[in-house]
Amino acid sequence: MALTIQHSRRIDAQPETVWEQFGDVASWPRWLPIIRGARWLDGEPWTDGARLRMAMAVGPASLGVDVTIANASPPLSVAWAAGRLGVRSLHTWTFTPDNGGTLATSHEALDGPMPQMLGVRALRPMINRMTASWLDSLVARVETGTSTDAT
């Protein structure tokens, strides 16, 4: 893959509690500023092969992204694959028990013609902001029941 980005945050809750928020796709737009909409397209939610559609905020615009669950092991991990606008990605989320809490890690790997054309330097800051925002929002939602500001 041409570009990989990884972020982790510690959350003061067990993985099962973290998954209750993360796994509730319909609630994402209420607490996750980078998601404007999310719904299951087909398949049993959080099972291998199920498909999910997200409308992601990219500045003032929305970008529709369909993902296919590649490997699901709730409440400890999920990976999804997507392809759009010349970008192929594999995004893995892990929720590891950590001294009474959870270490939440997002790892995204991107490849394809668009990352090659734009170069890693152009995409890295945007993907870094989006991934960090998602994790910060998850921490806020689980620990305080609130959301964070938009990216």
Proportion in helices? 25-40%
Extended strand count:
7
Order of helices and strands: EHHEEEEEEH
Taking the alpha carbons of the first and last residues, their distance comes to: 25 Å
- Gyration radius, in Å: 15 Å
Low-confidence stretches: none
Largest sheet: 7 strands, antiparallel
Specify the overall morphology.
globular
CATH topology call of the domain at 3-33 and 73-144: Alpha-D-Glucose-1,6-Bisphosphate, Chain A, domain 4
**CATH first level of the domain at 3-33 and 73-144:** Alpha Beta
Strand proportion: over 45%
* Fourth-tier CATH superfamily name of the domain at 3-33 and 73-144: START domain
What is the averaged pLDDT score?
Answer: 89
Oligomer state of the chains in this structure: single chain
Structural class: alpha+beta
What's the number of helices? 3
Reported CATH architecture of the domain at 3-33 and 73-144: 2-Layer Sandwich
Query: Which strand order does the major sheet show?
Result: 1-7-6-5-4-3-2
Description:
The protein is of the alpha+beta class and 151 residues long. The protein has a domain at 3-33 and 73-144: START domain (Alpha-D-Glucose-1,6-Bisphosphate, Chain A, domain 4, 2-Layer Sandwich), CATH 3.30.530. The protein contains three helices and seven strands, in the order E-H-H-E-E-E-E-E-E-H. The protein has a seven-stranded antiparallel beta sheet with strand order 1-7-6-5-4-3-2. The two termini are 25 Å apart.
Question: What key attributes describe this structure?
Answer:
globular, Alpha-D-Glucose-1,6-Bisphosphate, Chain A, domain 4, 3 helices, 46% strand, single chain, alpha+beta, 7 strands, 151 residues
